[in-house]
């Protein structure tokens, strides 16, 4: 019976200690309730203040979350010191420091994406709705969160990209400017007057509705001697969105083809001359004359 008596004695001591600590628990509970109320009020003030700024919504949510975490950490520390008077802020912070190092090693990738997300949110060059390309990923930016970004590809598939990838690798923001330059290659026959061909192509491109020719010039340069044609490099400017680029390229190619046909300028296809060392018999002919 001795072990049972020891156990009962310990339970009685624990119960008595718990009863003696009830006032501390009550005060700690009041502190936590007050912390919750202060958090609600201060978080509301911060959200209203941030709403007047030009910060992105994700960044505003981050600041609001950090304020909430800071208030809760302070409130929990005060409540813990009330319940356990032997604790000091220094010992609590030391324990948090050791724990944060261990957590940091365990969640290295998570924190890396978190920090990359904060930096990306502060950037002005990549916004919601921009069309970007990074590595093999290309599409419209639908959402930028703290840990990841959502990229909607042109084929309708959603790609969730860790922010560390967008931070470490070059990102092409195709819609950063309103206009984007487009280039196509157009070949004409060798016996064609190049100045006439250049003028015909330029007039055709200028007449296209999707071509922005007010501030951005249309440029046409003879580029190379091809196997069966002299190739022109034709460049112009149009809207930067991918669908506008495709629409403009379609319109320009159709207009140039029609203009060259009307002017009688040949767009050649590859020719190949075959030379045989020996005469070849022609089908249908038998014997010699």
UniProtKB/TrEMBL annotation:
<protein>
    <recommendedName>
        <fullName>Small-conductance mechanosensitive channel</fullName>
    </recommendedName>
</protein>
<dbReference type="InterPro" id="IPR011066">
    <property type="entry name" value="MscS_channel_C_sf"/>
</dbReference>
<dbReference type="GO" id="GO:0008381">
    <property type="term" value="F:mechanosensitive monoatomic ion channel activity"/>
</dbReference>
<dbReference type="InterPro" id="IPR006685">
    <property type="entry name" value="MscS_channel_2nd"/>
</dbReference>
<keyword id="KW-0406">Ion transport</keyword>
<dbReference type="InterPro" id="IPR010920">
    <property type="entry name" value="LSM_dom_sf"/>
</dbReference>
<dbReference type="InterPro" id="IPR049278">
    <property type="entry name" value="MS_channel_C"/>
</dbReference>
<feature type="transmembrane region" description="Helical">
    <location>
        <begin position="21"/>
        <end position="42"/>
    </location>
</feature>
<feature type="domain" description="Mechanosensitive ion channel MscS">
    <location>
        <begin position="109"/>
        <end position="171"/>
    </location>
</feature>
<keyword id="KW-1133">Transmembrane helix</keyword>
<comment type="subunit">
    <text>Homoheptamer.</text>
</comment>
<dbReference type="GO" id="GO:0005886">
    <property type="term" value="C:plasma membrane"/>
</dbReference>
<keyword id="KW-1003">Cell membrane</keyword>
<keyword id="KW-0472">Membrane</keyword>
<keyword id="KW-0813">Transport</keyword>
<comment type="similarity">
    <text>Belongs to the MscS (TC 1.A.23) family.</text>
</comment>
<dbReference type="Pfam" id="PF00924">
    <property type="entry name" value="MS_channel_2nd"/>
</dbReference>
<feature type="transmembrane region" description="Helical">
    <location>
        <begin position="90"/>
        <end position="122"/>
    </location>
</feature>
<comment type="function">
    <text>Mechanosensitive channel that participates in the regulation of osmotic pressure changes within the cell, opening in response to stretch forces in the membrane lipid bilayer, without the need for other proteins. Contributes to normal resistance to hypoosmotic shock. Forms an ion channel of 1.0 nanosiemens conductance with a slight preference for anions.</text>
</comment>
<keyword id="KW-0407">Ion channel</keyword>
<dbReference type="InterPro" id="IPR045275">
    <property type="entry name" value="MscS_archaea/bacteria_type"/>
</dbReference>
<dbReference type="InterPro" id="IPR023408">
    <property type="entry name" value="MscS_beta-dom_sf"/>
</dbReference>
<dbReference type="Pfam" id="PF21082">
    <property type="entry name" value="MS_channel_3rd"/>
</dbReference>
<feature type="domain" description="Mechanosensitive ion channel MscS C-terminal">
    <location>
        <begin position="182"/>
        <end position="267"/>
    </location>
</feature>
<keyword id="KW-0997">Cell inner membrane</keyword>
<keyword id="KW-0812">Transmembrane</keyword>
<feature type="transmembrane region" description="Helical">
    <location>
        <begin position="62"/>
        <end position="84"/>
    </location>
</feature>
<dbReference type="InterPro" id="IPR011014">
    <property type="entry name" value="MscS_channel_TM-2"/>
</dbReference>
């Amino acid at each position: 019976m001795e072990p049972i008596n020891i156990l009962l004695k310990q339970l009685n001591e624990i119960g008595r200690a718990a009863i003696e600590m009830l006032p501390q628990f009550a005060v700690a509970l009041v502190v936590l309730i007050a912390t919750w109320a202060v958090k609600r009020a201060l978080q509301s003030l911060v959200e209203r203040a941030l709403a007047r700024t030009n910060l992105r919504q994700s960044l505003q949510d981050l600041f609001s979350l950090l304020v909430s975490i800071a208030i809760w950490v302070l409130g929990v520390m005060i409540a813990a010191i009330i319940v356990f008077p032997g604790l000091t802020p220094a010992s609590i912070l030391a324990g948090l420091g050791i724990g944060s190092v261990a957590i940091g090693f365990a969640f290295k990738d998570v924190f890396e994406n978190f920090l990359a997300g904060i930096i990306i949110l502060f950037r002005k060059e990549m916004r919601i709705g921009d069309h970007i390309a990074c590595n093999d990923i290309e599409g419209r930016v639908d959402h930028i969160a703290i840990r990841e970004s959502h990229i909607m590809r042109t084929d309708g598939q959603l790609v969730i990209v860790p922010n560390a990838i967008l931070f470490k690798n070059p990102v092409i923001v195709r819609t950063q400017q309103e206009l984007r330059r487009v280039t196509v290659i157009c070949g004409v026959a060798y016996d064609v007057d190049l100045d006439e061909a250049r003028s015909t192509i330029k007039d055709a491109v200028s007449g296209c509705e999707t071509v922005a020719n007010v501030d951005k010039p249309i440029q046409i340069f003879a580029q190379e001697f091809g196997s069966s044609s002299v190739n022109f490099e034709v460049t112009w400017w149009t809207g930067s969105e991918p669908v506008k680029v495709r629409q403009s390229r379609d319109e320009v190619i159709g207009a140039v083809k029609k203009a060259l046909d009307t002017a009688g300028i040949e767009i050649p296809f590859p020719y190949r001359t075959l030379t045989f060392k020996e005469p070849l018999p022609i089908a249908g002919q038998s014997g010699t004359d």
